[in-house]
Amino acid sequence: DAGITQSPRHKVTETGTPVTLRCHQTENHRYMYWYRQDPGHGLRLIHYSYGVKDTDKGEVSDGYSVSRSKTEDFLLTLESATSSQTSVYFCAISESMDRGVTNYGYTFGSGTRLTVV
Amino acid sequence: SQKIEQNSEALNIQEGKTATLTCNYTNYSPAYLQWYRQDPGRGPVFLLLIRENEKEKRKERLKVTFDTTLKQSLFHITASQPADSATYLCALDYGGGNKLTFGTGTQLKVEL
């Protein structure tokens, strides 16, 4: 999607290895989010960021860490991947918080399909 | 914890008819409710947002209603087309960082 890209698009990794997913935006928004999407569970929030070096946990944060050293990049790290972390991961940005009014929805990236074997 | 229910069964309708999708939630009402469209292999795309003090919102062929008494939102697509076939997600925003809680989505199939 315009303004937000995720990499890689697909990844297969082995149990126990570290994995880092990258989200890059060109919109200069303060708020960025990482979600995972699984059948029967929908999208669940992992972590979010409200500025450089400012992050907080979401609903399913165990086993994940994040970092935001620049406005444009939000990294999601699986320190030691497990099979339960096989999922599709989406990054999103929000314009609403920048403007102080909630008139806008999220803009999502195209997702990263991660398989842990 | 908050629970959001969307019909897990696919909705099949004929072209030209109005599609109506339901989003029910438990506990307290959100400040905002949003609807997204998701196509296979793609990220969700924002469609409409409605506030808790608004009853109805329209955008072209789309209409969203929000009933805080029933704890329900309805999403309507009028004059549906095969291109409207997708999964539709509702999302609740309780404020405080604009964090959204999503339903599991309902798949819509519009047949010729």
Walk me through the structure.
The complex is a heterodimer of chains A (117) and B (112). Chain A is 3% helix and 56% strand. Chain A has one helix spanning 96-99, and strands at residues 4-7, 10-13, 19-25, 31-38, 42-51, 54-57, 64-70, 73-78, 87-94, 106-108, 112-116. In chain A, a hairpin with a 2-residue loop joins strand 7 and strand 8 (73-78). In chain B, 0% of the residues lie in helices and 54% in strands. Chain B is built from no helices and 11 strands. Chain B has strands at 4-6, 11-14, 19-25, 32-38, 45-51, 56-59, 62-67, 72-77, 86-93, 100-102, 106-111. In chain B, a hairpin with a 6-residue loop joins strand 4 (32-38) and strand 5 (45-51). The chains are: A mainly beta (117), B mainly beta (112). At the A-B interface, strand 4, strand 5, strand 9 and strand 10 of A face strand 4, strand 5, strand 9 and strand 10 of B.
**Tally of alpha and pi helices of chain B:** 0
CATH class of chain B: Mainly Beta
Measured on Cα atoms, how large is the radius of gyration of chain A?
A: 14 Å
CATH topology of chain B: Immunoglobulin-like
Q: Termini separation of chain A (Å)?
A: 29 Å
Largest sheet of chain A: 7 strands, mixed
List the helices and strands and how they pair.
The complex is a heterodimer of chains A (117) and B (112).
Chain A: E1 4-7, E2 10-13, E3 19-25, E4 31-38, E5 42-51, E6 54-57, E7 64-70, E8 73-78, E9 87-94, H1 96-99, E10 106-108, E11 112-116
Parallel strand pairs in A: 2-11
Antiparallel strand pairs in A: 1-3, 3-8, 4-5, 4-9, 5-6, 7-8, 9-10, 9-11
Chain B: E1 4-6, E2 11-14, E3 19-25, E4 32-38, E5 45-51, E6 56-59, E7 62-67, E8 72-77, E9 86-93, E10 100-102, E11 106-111
Parallel strand pairs in B: 2-11
Antiparallel strand pairs in B: 1-3, 3-8, 4-5, 4-9, 6-7, 7-8, 9-10, 9-11
